[in-house]
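User: Could you go from structure to sequence for me? I need the amino acid at each position, not a summary. Structure tokens:
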């Protein structure tokens, strides 16, 4: 299986860009991450996400939602709020969140 970016979605849609630097304490993080992915996929407006971490430790996760209401539903989800609280207490040295409405989107895939 080759690595591919998510396909371009039909604009407008919303993206949430979460950029973070983690602490050395990973206790409970993998299980919480798996649960967050499970929960967000139940949101009918969730389109998908992409995530990467540099060798130096900077992580970037971009989540795509159909509209601001779908993103607000995710933000208000109680288990997500609990995970955010644990993240600030344990897993993150720092993070930044950017939210934007996408007005243009296109992609390219090499054939062959």
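Assistant: Here is the amino acid at each position, in order:
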């Amino acid at each position: 299986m080759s690595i591919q970016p998510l396909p371009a979605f039909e604009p407008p849609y919303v993206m949430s860009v979460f950029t973070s630097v983690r602490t050395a304490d990973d206790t409970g993080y993998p299980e919480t991450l798996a649960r967050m992915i499970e929960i967000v996929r139940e949101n009918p407006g969730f389109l998908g996400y992409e995530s990467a971490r540099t060798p130096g430790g900077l992580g970037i996760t971009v989540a795509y939602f159909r509209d601001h209401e779908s993103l607000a539903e995710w933000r208000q989800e109680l288990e997500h709020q609990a995970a955010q609280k644990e993240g600030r207490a344990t897993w993150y040295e720092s993070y930044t969140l950017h939210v934007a409405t996408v007005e243009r989107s296109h992609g390219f895939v090499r054939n062959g």
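One structural detail worth keeping in mind: The chain has three helices and four strands.
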